[in-house]
Specification:
This is phosphoglucomutase (alpha-D-glucose-1,6-bisphosphate-dependent). By secondary structure, this protein is of the alpha/beta class.
């Protein structure tokens, strides 16, 4: 076997976003494109020679080919051992689990998360560090700087590895272990949750659930968890076979894209509980019978009921949420007497809090929830957490949430996404808002008076690092908020996200439909930001 050194030139567009480098499949298929970025990862890592890495992805188109390329490059760069998922499959939470369990240096996760797949879809490469979490900015900055100066990469001349069965292989001097990534993940879940109590619920014949994996990575994990270990009937998991194009669907667990599940849960004779997960398995949507649980409310409910679950029976050190996530968890934290941290969007910002023991549960409004069991958000973990609470309480999803509102008040909350907006007008909208911020406090808009307005900046309480321009916040004296942010997860143009929140303590008003309750603030957002003018859209692409 021969190590080849291939001459190359930099690409100008390899700056990682909040979750690694995401581009279209054709972009990654350009000669040297994937190789340049992967070599830049290896060049940026201290002590990678002889180290163990985890490798796998969500099964989308180009996943298998990319794995074979990365294995050969890893061997050429002196990596000691690669743990790769059988079939190339590794959910993001399972990868974090295995990185931590095997004390690996880190892992390379191949996914574009909730973005569409297929030959003309999206692909992504993300590096996770030794704690199992996404690389912090100092690491991604080092990788990016290397992509701008790279002149060559190394790759081993070798045959492809058989990924379709567990086994041990040699590639040059590097060990390759093809492993069933489902097993360590299920074992971790068994240490956290009361499987016997959940199994009694799911096998009782009195409780039905539906799990939609959207033809993405969690299919094998969900089949094992729910139908094998927790006693749910075969057929509980739908769309459970990972497909390279996700069956032509959009693997984003929300009310628009998880339409099969929504039809079931809002149809006749609906199950008691429904859930969906995304492309790489780190997001979740929770539904009751004819009832949708917002991710913000889900985090608040899990926080309020955590001691019902064995892994969290001793209470929580704290809870953390991303800035655009509603303030519902803050109210629970205040009552429990624990800290609630507000961070920028991106799971890497939770890592320091979790490692320092400052927070136990974390969540984002973008359907991501997790805890200190790994360093990623974890879709199936959230589903099992909900099942554990339901098994203990013996009530419905809707009753749990409405009882929660009765105790803490309701944070009406919605996110409006304007997808694939041309980048220039999207940035002009944000700059217009920034120019108004200084003069907003004290200003009245109808019944709303501005209490504060800023471009959110975060100083990490653990390492002191500062992250600026993380989203524009306009907060009002009644506790309402409007937030504007450009997302870093898309691959075409820009995604403008508008977040709208209004707090309602009066239980007699909790039944009002969300968009109706928020309509004055939605109109106010248009008045302030001129969204229709800058986006050219009369309405959002997705409302959640």
């Amino acid at each position: 076997m021969t190590i080849c050194t291939i001459k190359t030139t930099p690409f100008s567009d390899q700056k990682p976003g909040t979750s690694g480098l995401r581009k279209s499949v054709p972009a990654f298929q350009q000669p040297h494109y994937l190789e340049n970025f992967v070599q830049s990862i290896f060049d940026s890592l201290d002590g990678c020679e002889g180290a163990t890495l985890v490798l796998g992805g969500d099964g989308r188109y180009y996943n298998r080919e990319a794995i074979q390329i990365i294995l050969k490059m890893a061997a050429a760069n002196g990596i000691g051992c690669i743990l790769v998922g059988c079939g190339g499959i590794f959910s993001t939470p399972a990868a974090s689990c295995v990185i931590r369990q095997y004390n690996a240096l880190g892992g390379i996760i191949l996914s574009a998360s909730h973005n569409p797949g297929g030959p003309n879809g999206d692909f992504g490469v993300k590096y996770n560090v030794s704690n199992g979490g996404p690389a912090p900015e100092k690491v991604t900055d080092a990788i990016y700087n290397r992509t701008k100066a790279i002149t060559e990469y190394k790759i081993l001349e070798a045959a492809d590895i058989n990924l379709d069965r567990p086994g041990s292989f040699k590639m040059g001097t590097m060990e390759v272990e093809v492993m069933d990534s489902v097993v360590p993940y299920v074992e971790l879940m068994q240490t956290l949750f009361d499987f016997d109590k959940i199994k009694d619920l799911l096998s009782s014949g009195k409780f039905r659930m539906c799990m939609d994996s959207l033809h993405a990575v969690t299919g094998p994990y969900a089949h094992a968890l729910f139908e094998k270990y927790l006693g749910a009937p075969v057929g509980t998991v739908q769309n459970g076979t990972p497909l390279e194009d996700f069956g032509g669907g959009h693997p984003d667990p929300n009310l628009v894209y998880a339409h099969d599940l929504v039809e079931v849960m809002f149809g006749d004779n609906a199950p008691d509980f429904g859930a969906a997960s995304d492309g790489d398995g780190d997001r979740n949507m929770i539904l009751g019978r004819n009832f949708f649980v917002t991710p913000s409310d889900s985090l608040a409910v899990l926080t309020a009921n955590a001691t019902l679950v064995p892994g969290y029976k001793d209470g929580l050190a704290g809870v953390a949420r991303s800035m655009p996530t509603s303030e519902a968890p803050d109210r629970v934290a205040a009552k429990l007497g624990i800290d609630c941290y507000e961070t920028p969007t991106g799971w890497k910002f939770f890592g320091n809090l979790l490692d320092a023991g400052k927070a136990t549960l974390c969540g984002e409004e973008s359907f991501g929830t997790g805890s200190n069991h790994i360093r990623e958000k974890d879709g199936l973990w959230a589903v099992v957490f909900w099942l554990n609470i339901l098994a203990v309480k013996g009530t419905s999803v809707e009753e749990i949430v409405r009882d929660h509102w009765q105790e803490y008040g309701r944070n009406f909350y919605s996110r409006h996404d304007y997808e694939e907006v041309p980048s220039d007008p999207a940035n002009e909208l944000m700059e217009l808002l920034r120019s108004q911020l200084q003069n907003m406090p004290g200003k009245s808009y109808g019944n709303y008076e501005v209490a504060y307005s800023d471009d959110f900046s975060y100083t990490d309480p653990i390492d002191g690092s500062v992250s600026q321009k993380q989203g524009i916040r306009i907060g009002f004296t009644d506790g309402s908020r409007i937030i504007f942010r450009l997302s870093g997860t898309g691959t075409k143009g820009a995604t403008l996200r508008l977040y709208v929140e209004s707090y309602e303590p009066d239980a007699s008003k909790h039944h009002v439909e969300t968009q109706e309750a928020l309509s004055p603030l939605i109109q106010l957002a248009e008045e302030i930001a001129h969204i229709k003018k800058f986006t050219g859209r009369d309405k959002p692409t997705v409302i959640t």
